[in-house]
Amino acid sequence: NLASSTIFGNVNSQFSQDVSFVGDKDTHLKKPLDHEFLIPGLNTLLDNQKSDVIFLHSYAGHGPYHKFIPADFKDKQHIFNQYSLSEIFKDYKYKERLFDDLKMYDQSIAYIDHNINTIVEKIKDLDQPFMFLYFSDHGDNVFDGTGHDSRWLDSSMLNVPFVIYFNNAARIKYPDVWDSLRIDT
User: Fold this and answer.
1) Closest CA to 45 of 16, 1, 12
2) Where does residue 57 rank: exposed (0-12), middle (13-18), buried (19+ CB within 10 A)?
3) Pairing of strands 131-135, 162-166
């Protein structure tokens, strides 16, 4: 939140969970799930139609992963179950714990995908042009348990998804931009 006041000093509105009274202990606070916090906030901003830019920051994808995803995204049958721990983790001492983290991280990414889809569905048919950009502020190394701790920086912490979505109105209003960015598959 410290960076937010500098980067977004001229915003019309801003809301977040206030962690100023706990300092670096904010990981101990109960945080709302993304779909409970981000989607209603987005709905409010869309209803007011006053925002040119909307930034949403997700807790999902941060450790401990199980704390930031709803129950229906946990404990699903998992693709990693078909592999042995030694096939996935080399010689790490805490393979079982890392395996649980890996599965939870993967499930948190499925939850993030679900929320991205929810946002796309909300904006795709609006009359107002919307360009939705999704990017992660970091990746995590779930294979050795370092998460995104910069003391052990590796490429998995730097590789992040980048998605650009134009709703129908934006494609019509900005066809040259849409065509220049579009990748046909």
Assistant:
1) 12
2) exposed
3) antiparallel
Give CA–CA dist 117/39, Å, rounded: 11
- One-letter identity of residue 111: Y
In the DSSP assignment, the letter for residue 52 is S
Amino acid at 140: D
Residue 67 near residue 104, CB atoms below 8 Å:
no
**DSSP annotation string for 149-173:** -GGG--GGGT---EEEEE-HHHHHH
What are the two backbone dihedrals, phi and then psi, of residue 146, each rounded to the nearest 5 degrees?
A: -85, -10
Residue 5 pLDDT exceeds 50: yes
Residues 139 and 168: their CA atoms lie apart, in Å, by: 30
* R_g over Cα of the chain: 19
Contact 143, 98 (CB under 8 A): yes
Assess contact for 87 and 99: CB atoms under 8 A.
Answer: no
Q: Which of 60, 64, 73, 29 is nearest to 137 (CA)?
A: 60
Which residue is associated with the tokens 């001229």? 10
| pTM score | 0.79
pLDDT value at 62 more than 80: yes
Joined tokens for residue 142: 């779930």
pLDDT of residue 141: 86
d(CA 173, CA 69): 37
Per the CB < 8 A criterion, the answer to whether 80 and 103 are in contact is yes
